[in-house]
Amino acid sequence: MQGRGRWFHGRIRGCGYRLTLPRMKIVEVLNSSKGHLSAEEVFLKVHQIYPAVGLTTIYRTLEMLVASGIVGKINAGDGKARYEFKKTPEEDPHFHLICKKCGNIINVEANKELDKHINKVKEEYIKNYEFKVDNLQLRFYGLCKNCK
User: Would you state the pLDDT for residue 4?
Assistant: First the structure.
């Protein structure tokens, strides 16, 4: 696999899982995708290159990849989870703009000014509630430029 590297190999093994061919094909599909795929979309793409894969394997593998931090899971508000491959274990944070009409998900890269504000809010919650934050997701729901 080119581009984003193979850091996930160690992560999968480190979490006690085997690196199977179906898992590799699922990661390849997510890695090459420019969008956020549903489990059904992942299944259709993987099935084209590895017909022996079943939908149950896709669901189980996606949840395993999310739990091990290799894949991000996004709920677009339509009851259907979407998945995206992370570039690195500590991928730069990005946020999502989610269209409530067409379901389009737009990645928005964080910037230094926004990071300052978000970190300030996060630190306040940590201090006031003695809460350890290990995952922060920011989503904006509304209408994209094509739907508004």
Answer: 47
Which tokens is 88 given? 């690195």
Give dist(CA 87, CA 89) in Å, integer: 7
More confident residue, 13 or 130: 130
Which domains, and CATH codes, for the chain? 1-88 (1.10.10.10), 92-148 (3.30.1490.190)
Rounded to two decimals, the pTM is: 0.75
Identify each DSSP E strand in the chain by its residue range. Answer: 71-75, 81-85, 94-99, 105-109, 139-142
pLDDT digits over 89-107, tens only? 555 567 889 998 888 888 8
Strand partners, 37: 83
Pairing status of strand 81-85 against strand 139-142: unpaired
Helix axes 21-32, 55-67, angle to 10 degrees: 70
